[in-house]
Design brief:
This protein is mainly α. The chain is about 70% helix and about 0% strand.
Length: about 725
C-alpha cells in the first residue's frame, strides 16, 4: 500500500487529480440518482450528470476553490442558453448543424480573451451537443434546465467544501519572488560599488536562485490556465512587469561585470541603484501580499537627482568604459520605474494616477492602461477576426469539424451520435501533429472500453449492479486520464456512458459496437480537418507575428541612431513596431492558451528583445538631444548596423520557422574607436552604447536554453575572484 501511495504522490503530488475526480464523480452520481430515482425523471437525469461532467471534468477552471465556485455559478446562465438552443434547434438536422457551426466557432473564438475562457470552451460545447440530437422535445426543456442547474450548484458547493484543492501559487506570487531575488542582487552590486569587496561574492550566491526564479516566469513553465495571457489590463501589466524584471536581472549581471574603479558618478550611481532595489523590494512585497502598493515618486526623484549629478560631472578625457557604469545605472533606474508603473496598473490604478510624472505612461508599451477592460477584450476580438489569427483558425477548424460530424450523425441516423462530437472534442488539437498523437490512445482506449461494455451487457444483471458500479467506475475513470493517460480515460469513460444509459433506456451489447463506430467516424473527421485546415496550429502564426516584430525593431534601431546622430526626422518605424508588438503579444497570449511541447525558443525573451528596442528608443528620443552626435556618427552607425543585422537574422529565421537557425550564435563584431572629448554628449553616447549592447545581449539570449544555476554561479564566482 505504501508503494501505491508513493507512486500516487509522484504522479499527483497534491492529489489534485484524485480530488477533482472524487468531487466530479460524487456530484455527477448523486445528481443523476436524485433525478432518476428520487424524482423519477429519466429526462432530467442525463443533464444533471453531464452538467457536472462538462464543468467538472471537461473544463479547466483555475484559481482558488472560491474562485472556481464563483466561475461555475457565473456561467450557469450561459449553460441555460446553450441547452435551450440545442433543444430548439434539434428540430431538423440542418438547423442543429448550423447551430453547431455558429456556436462551435463562437465558444472557441471567445478564448482569445484568455486561458480562463479557453478552459471553459470544451465544457460549454458539450452543453449544446447533448440536447441538439433527437428526439426533438421542447416540452422537456424545463426539466433539462433544472437538471443542469442542480448539477452546477452542487458542483460549486463541492468545490468549496468537498476535499477542496490547495490554492495554487498565483503568477503574482511567482513574480514577487523573482523580483525580490533580483532586488537582492541589485543591493549586492551596490555594496560592491560602495567599496565592499564581498559584494561580488554575495552576488555569486544570489544570482543562481534569481536566474532560476526569473526563468520560472516563462509561460512555458506553468499550466496554460495559470498564465497572464488574458486581454485585461491586469494580466497585460503583469506580463510587462515580468519582462521588465528579466531585463533588470540581465542588466544586474552586466553591472557586476563592469569595473567600478575610477567610474564617473559612482556615488550617484550607487544611490540610484539602491533606490531601484528599494522599489523592487516594495513591488515584491505588494505582489506577495505583505506590503502596500508602491509608488513611483521615490524612483522618479532619484532619477532626477542622478541626471543633475551627471550634468555637473565633466566626462571629457574619460575612457568610455568609465562612463558605461553610469549609463547602466540610469537604464536600471528607468526599468525600476517601468516595473512599479506596470504593477500599479495591474492593481487597477488609473494611468494618470499611477505615476504623477509619467514619462512612459503614453500610448506605446503601456497603451492598454488607457482602455477599459471591455474595450480591451473587444480590441482583441477585432484584431483576431482575421484568417491570419491563430484563434480564428482554431475556432473555424473546430466549428467545421463539429458541424460536419453533426450533419453526418443526422444524415446517417446514428443513435448516440453525440459520441461522434465528443470524440472530436477529445482528439482534435491545434495542429495535425498533436491530433495524430492523441488519435491512437483515444481509439485503443475506446475499443477496449467498448469490449468491456459489451461483455458487461451480454449478461442480464440486476439494475442494482449498475447503480453500485457507476460511482466506482466514474471515480476511477475521471482519475485515470491524468494518472495513466488518454487511453485509460477513454476506456473508462466509455464504461461510464454505458452504465448511465443502462439506467435510462433499454440497452444491449450493441451499444458498444455503436460506440466504436461513432468514435471511428469522429476520429476520421477530426484527423481530416486537422490535416487540411491550418495543420501547423498556433505556432506558425506566432513565428510570423514575432518575426515581423523583431524585423521592425531592427528598423527602430537604425532610425533611432539616425535621429540621435544625424538629426534625421523620426520616421514610421516606432509606430509600426508598437503595432507589430501588440500583434505579437496577442499571438503569444493565444499560443500560451494551447498545449504545446516545451519550446526550444524562449518566446518571452524574444518579445522582450523587441520591447527593449522600442522602449529604449522612446526614452532616448524624448530625453536626449537629437542630431548632436555628428562627430561620433561613424562608430554609432557601425554598432547600430551590427545590432540591427542581428535582429534581421533572427527575424528571417522566425519567418522560416527554423528554431535552430534562430538559436544559432552570431559572431561578435569588430571593436570600434570612440571619442573622449565631446563634453556632455559623451553621456548620450554612453546611453546609446549601453542600449545597443543590451539589445545585442537580448537578441543573442533567445535560444530558450537559459544559464542554469551552476553555470551562473561559476560565472559570477570568477568575477568575485577577480575582485580579490
Amino acid at each position: 500500500m505504501s508503494n501505491v501511495m508513493q507512486w500516487l504522490r509522484r504522479k499527483d503530488p497534491q492529489y489534485r487529480a484524485v480530488r477533482r475526480a472524487a468531487r466530479v464523480a460524487l456530484v455527477a452520481c448523486l445528481a443523476f440518482y436524485f433525478c432518476r430515482y428520487v424524482l423519477g425523471d429519466a429526462k432530467m437525469a442525463p443533464y444533471a450528470l453531464f452538467g457536472a461532467v462538462a464543468l467538472g471534468a471537461l473544463s479547466q477552471i483555475p484559481g482558488s476553490p472560491k474562485q472556481r465556485a464563483a466561475t461555475i455559478i457565473a456561467v450557469l446562465p450561459v449553460g441555460w442558453a446553450l441547452v435551450s438552443l440545442g433543444t430548439l434547434l434539434s428540430i431538423t438536422t440542418w438547423s442543429a448543424t448550423l447551430g453547431m457551426f455558429v456556436l462551435g466557432f463562437v465558444l472557441s473564438f471567445v478564448g482569445v480573451g484568455g486561458p480562463r475562457l479557453v478552459g471553459l470552451a470544451a465544457g460549454m460545447q458539450l452543453l449544446y451537443i447533448l440536447p441538439c440530437f433527437p428526439p426533438y422535445d421542447p416540452g422537456s426543456l424545463l426539466v433539462r434546465l433544472e437538471g443542469l442547474t442542480l448539477a452546477l450548484v452542487m458542483l460549486a458547493i463541492a468545490e468549496l467544501f468537498l476535499w477542496p484543492d490547495p490554492t495554487p501559487p498565483t503568477y503574482s506570487r511567482r513574480l514577487g519572488d523573482a523580483v525580490a531575488s533580483m532586488a537582492g542582487c541589485l543591493n549586492a552590486v551596490a555594496d560592491y560599488w560602495a567599496g565592499d569587496p564581498k559584494g561580488r561574492t554575495r552576488l555569486a550566491d544570489l544570482v543562481p536562485a534569481a536566474a532560476d526564479l526569473a526563468d520560472q516566469l516563462r509561460p512555458s513553465r506553468m499550466p496554460p490556465v495559470m498564465r497572464p495571457a488574458s486581454a485585461g489590463r491586469r494580466d497585460r501589466a503583469l506580463s510587462s512587469a515580468a519582462g521588465t524584471a528579466r531585463l533588470m536581472l540581465g542588466r544586474t549581471l552586466d553591472m557586476s561585470a563592469a569595473d567600478a574603479k575610477d567610474a564617473i558618478n559612482l556615488p550617484a550611481s550607487t544611490r540610484l541603484l539602491r533606490e531601484a532595489a528599494a522599489c523592487a523590494e516594495a513591488a515584491s512585497a505588494w505582489l506577495r501580499g505583505t506590503g502596500p502598493l508602491p509608488g513611483t515618486e521615490e524612483i522618479t526623484a532619484a532619477l532626477n537627482e542622478f541626471r543633475v549629478a551627471r550634468m555637473n560631472a565633466d566626462p571629457n578625457g574619460r575612457p568610455s568604459e568609465q562612463l558605461h557604469l553610469s549609463s547602466m545605472a540610469l537604464s536600471t533606474g528607468e526599468f525600476a520605474k517601468q516595473l512599479v508603473f506596470a504593477i500599479r496598473i495591474s492593481a487597477g490604478v488609473p494611468p494618470e494616477h499611477a505615476d504623477p510624472t509619467p514619462v512612459e505612461a503614453r500610448p506605446g508599451a503601456f497603451w492598454f492602461a488607457y482602455h477599459k477592460t471591455p474595450d480591451l477584450y473587444w480590441h482583441r476580438l477585432k484584431e483576431n477576426l482575421t484568417p491570419r489569427s491563430v484563434a480564428f483558425q482554431g475556432a473555424l477548424r473546430l466549428a467545421v469539424a463539429l458541424a460536419v460530424a453533426r450533419l453526418l450523425a443526422g444524415e446517417l441516423d446514428l443513435s448516440h451520435g453525440f459520441w461522434v462530437l465528443l470524440t472530436i472534442l477529445t482528439v482534435l488539437r491545434t495542429s495535425a501533429a498533436e491530433t495524430r498523437s492523441t488519435l491512437r490512445p483515444a481509439l485503443v482506449g475506446t475499443v477496449g472500453g467498448s469490449i468491456a461494455a459489451a461483455v458487461l451487457l451480454l449478461f442480464p444483471l440486476d439494475p442494482l449492479v449498475y447503480i453500485i458500479a457507476l460511482p466506482i467506475v466514474t471515480l476511477i475513470g475521471f482519475a485515470a486520464g491524468p494518472l495513466f493517460g488518454l487511453g485509460w480515460g477513454q476506456a473508462l469513460f466509455t464504461l461510464v456512458i454505458t452504465l448511465v444509459f443502462a439506467q435510462v433506456t433499454p440497452v444491449d451489447w450493441r451499444i458498444a459496437e455503436v460506440r466504436v463506430l461513432d468514435v471511428l467516424l469522429g476520429a476520421a473527421i477530426g484527423v481530416l480537418i486537422g490535416l487540411f485546415a491550418w495543420p501547423r496550429g498556433g505556432g506558425g502564426e506566432l513565428y510570423r507575428a514575432t518575426g515581423t516584430f523583431i524585423a521592425t525593431s531592427g528598423e527602430v534601431i537604425r532610425e533611432t541612431i539616425g535621429v540621435m546622430a544625424q538629426g534625421k526626422t523620426p520616421g514610421t518605424a516606432l509606430p509600426r513596431a508598437r503595432r507589430a508588438g501588440q500583434l505579437a503579444e496577442a499571438s503569444f497570449a493565444l499560443f500560451q492558451s494551447e498545449q504545446h511541447p516545451m519550446a526550444l525558443l524562449d518566446w518571452q525573451a524574444t518579445l522582450i528583445s523587441g520591447h527593449h528596442a522600442v522602449r529604449g528608443a522612446e526614452t532616448l528620443i524624448r530625453s536626449c538631444p537629437a542630431g548632436g552626435l555628428l562627430p561620433c556618427v561613424g562608430p554609432l552607425t557601425v554598432v547600430a548596423a551590427d545590432v540591427a543585422a542581428r535582429y534581421d537574422r533572427r527575424a528571417v529565421a522566425l519567418f522560416q520557422g527554423d528554431e535552430e537557425l534562430a538559436r544559432r550564435p552570431i559572431p561578435e563584431p569588430e571593436p570600434v574607436t570612440w571619442p573622449t572629448d565631446l563634453g556632455q554628449d559623451l553621456y548620450v553616447i554612453a546611453d546609446l552604447r549601453v542600449w545597443l549592447d543590451g539589445l545585442r545581449e537580448d537578441i543573442d539570449r533567445i535560444g530558450g536554453t537559459p544559464e542554469r544555476a551552476d553555470s551562473v554561479r561559476e560565472r559570477v564566482a570568477e568575477l568575485a575572484d577577480g575582485a580579490q
